[in-house]
Amino acid sequence: MCGRFVITSDPEAMRQMFGYGEHPNFPPRYNIAPTQPVPIIRQNGGRREFVLVRWGLVPSWAKEMPQSLLINARADTINEKPSFRGAFRHHRALMPADGFYEWKPTATGAKQPFFIRRRDRASFAMAAIWDNWLPADGSELETCAIITTDANATLKPIHHRMPVILDQKDFDFWLDPATPLKELEPLLAPPPDDLLEAFPVSPDVNRVANDGPRLLDPYMAPPEPAKPKKKEKPTDDRQESLF
Questions:
Q1: How many domains does the structure of the chain reveal?
Q2: Which positions are catalytic?
Q3: Is residue 104 part of a domain?
Q4: CATH number, position 186
Q5: pLDDT of the chain along its 243 residues, tens only?
Q6: SS3 assignment, position 85
Q7: Which of 49, 127, 165, 217 pairs as cysteine with 147 (C-beta 3.0–4.6 A)?
Q8: How far apart are CA 169 and CA 148, in angstroms?
Q9: DSSP string covering 165-225
């Protein structure tokens, strides 16, 4: 799963990496959350374009806004689920990121957030799908979802799912609507175990209103309180009397 992510790269550096013609100017974002506008790169008329869409997919055929947010699409069922298969076949995209968050359950029942990034600190592309929804009021809304796969060995101790991360050499192959779907399957696998690193960060990231570089500072969680020892029943060493 991926429920929050980060974009901190310089806009021009990101434009060079992803090869789109637009020149958007955007500030660093350290706590991007569902329903917010997020950037995607898609193919339009044979070229890549940068657009902002709402994170939380609404299928084009939906009669109303889904009650549950469709922020992630599982790679293993994406070509079967009605909510995702049309977008997967025709509307694939790249979602730029510099890292994302995941939460690990603890013994106390609380969840400890972790920040995950490339070991070399480079930007990367999460595989995404998008769709165009036309509600009854005549407006238009473009939305997206991140594609997830099984966690690799680095992330498995934290969560069993993670975003699909695409290699830069595969960008055109992924974006081209003419690419046979069967040939995309190898791209939906977990990345190499040594690509990413993860470390705990402050629970401040849990609040969407919190944003800023301090959210990426390594965090030492307070020690969990020791469980009280059970009182042992006193043993009776006396022998039973025979009389």
A1: 1
A2: 2, 102
A3: yes
A4: 3.90.1680.10
A5: 689 999 999 999 999 999 999 999 999 999 999 999 999 999 999 999 999 999 999 999 999 888 889 999 999 999 999 999 999 999 999 999 999 999 999 988 899 999 999 999 999 999 999 999 998 888 899 999 999 999 999 999 999 999 999 999 999 999 999 999 999 999 999 999 999 999 999 999 999 999 999 999 999 876 655 566 666 555 554 443 332
A6: helix
A7: 127
A8: 20
A9: EE-GGGHHHHH-TTS-GGGGGGGGSPPPTTSEEEEEB-GGGGSTT--SGGGGSB--PPPPP
Q: Which phi and psi angles does 213 have, rounded to 5°?
A: -60, -25
β-pairing, 99-105 vs 5-7, is antiparallel
CA angle, 9 as apex, 190 and 212 as ends, to 5°? 100
* The token pair that represents 190 in the structure block: 């977990």
* CA-wise closest residue to 55 among 8, 95, 84, 20: 95
Which structural domain range is residue 195 located in? 5-216
For 215, the token pair is 């959210």
The whole-model pTM stands at 0.89
